[in-house]
Design goal:
Elements (H helix, E strand, L loop, with lengths): L15 E5 L9 E3 L2 E4 L7 E7 L2 E6 L6 E5 L5 E4 L12 E6 L5 E6 L4 E6 L9 E4 L7 E6 L4 E6 L6 E5 L4 E5 L13 H7 L2 E5 L3 E6 L4 E6 L4 E6 L8 E6 L2 E6 L7 E6 L3 E6 L4 H7 L3 E8 L4 E17 L4 E6 L8 E5 L1
Parallel strand pairs: 1-19, 2-25
Antiparallel strand pairs: 3-27, 4-5, 5-6, 6-7, 8-9, 9-10, 10-11, 12-13, 13-14, 14-15, 16-17, 17-18, 18-19, 20-21, 22-23, 23-24, 24-25, 25-26, 26-27
Pfam families: TolB_like (PF15869)
Protein name: TolB-like 6-blade propeller-like
Length: 342
């Protein structure tokens, strides 16, 4: 059963939240060897990748090439996205999300506070549909479309873990409370939310929240309205403090703090998490970002640990062929699209 509008009509029951620490399960890492699929990503920082309808969609920060679409059958390469603020135009595309239609994808543009839907089969550079975040929804990060009328995201204001809102920017419901998370000390909710900052993904029935500065992730069940938090195997201890900013204490990470899950993918049955374990300084010095891909079931059990022979900054999954597609972490703008079979 897919989520629908009536699910959020009344919210008569409160969101149930639990923290789950699984017994340590030893999973022997499996080494995977990469194969270069496309080496013409070109200049401009490639940010995210998505497998959809036997195509690979890549977002970049280059006005002339904002969105690349690679057809795996023909090996052709199409450029989409018209730079600007006009109708159908986009600037600085960021995260990617599948649409319910196989030939369409949602692209989030953080700077514009907007979601844009592109038809990757048509080759049209302009978006077919755009949703502009308005009102209270302008503080939403990583917005995801749940259906034709509702969206969900995480809030910069720290008022809730998840925020459900409509296309008019009206807040429908706030889910989860950051103030309950006191493991790393007593801090204001907006500081805790910054510590837990993460990526959001959805499969229609669940929403995955994977933390960037911690090896932790949360799963929100949209049908049962239950949320569970799971601890990863590396147990990152974040190094951070607070600094005053216009009379307010704000989150201040140490340059030595390690990155946790820098990218994620949620299928109907599994959670895939790309783990870094490196500090910003180490990433700058080595050019590497992440070589560990962890796979969990939806109950939080670790089932696979893949060691990748090249470092990635983003990835996507084709479960029908057991293939991982990744963007290599770039040095001097030499990002490539690679694949691993598992």
């Amino acid at each position: 059963m897919k989520i629908h509008t009536l699910l959020f009509a009344s919210f008569a029951i409160a969101l149930s939240c639990t923290n789950t620490t699984k017994d340590k399960v030893i999973v022997t890492p499996t080494s995977l060897t990469s194969k270069v699929v496309f080496d013409d990503v070109g200049i401009g920082k490639a940010e995210h990748i998505l497998f959809q309808a036997n195509k690979l969609v890549v977002t970049k920060n280059l006005p002339e090439e904002l969105i690349l679409v690679y057809d795996l059958a023909s090996s052709s390469r199409t450029t989409m996205g018209q730079y600007g603020d006009g109708p159908g135009e986009i600037r600085n595309p960021w995260s990617l999300q599948k649409s319910k239609e196989p030939d369409q994808v949602w692209v989030a543009s953080i700077g514009q506070k907007m979601l844009s839907k592109f038809n990757i089969a048509s080759g049209d550079r302009l978006a077919e549909e755009q949703i502009k975040l308005k009102g209270e929804a302008t503080v939403i990060m990583e917005p995801l479309a749940l259906n034709d009328s509702l969206l969900i995201g995480s809030s910069l204001d720290g008022k809730s873990i998840f925020t459900v809102f409509n296309r008019e920017g009206e807040i429908i419901e706030r889910l989860g409370d950051w103030s309950e998370k006191t493991e790393f000390g007593e801090y204001p909710a907006h500081v805790v939310s910054a510590l837990y900052e993460g990526r959001l993904r959805t499969n229609g029935n669940q929403v995955l929240y994977s933390c960037i500065a911690l090896d932790r992730f949360m799963l929100l069940d949209l049908v049962k309205m239950e949320m569970e938090e799971f601890q990863g195997p590396f147990h990152i201890q974040p190094e951070f403090g607070t600094v005053p900013d216009r009379g307010v204490s704000v989150f201040a990470p140490s340059p030595d703090t390690k990155f946790g899950f820098i990218d994620s993918f949620l299928s109907d049955d599994y959670v895939y998490l790309l783990y870094s374990g490196l500090s910003p300084k180490e990433i700058t010095q080595t050019g590497k970002m992440a070589n560990d891909l962890l796979v969990y079931d939806l109950k939080g059990n670790l089932v696979h640990h893949f060691l990748l022979d090249v470092s990635l900054k983003a990835f996507s999954i084709d479960e029908n062929t057991n293939t991982i597609y990744g963007l290599t972490s770039y040095v001097n703008d030499d990002a490539k699209v690679v694949q691993f079979e598992f």
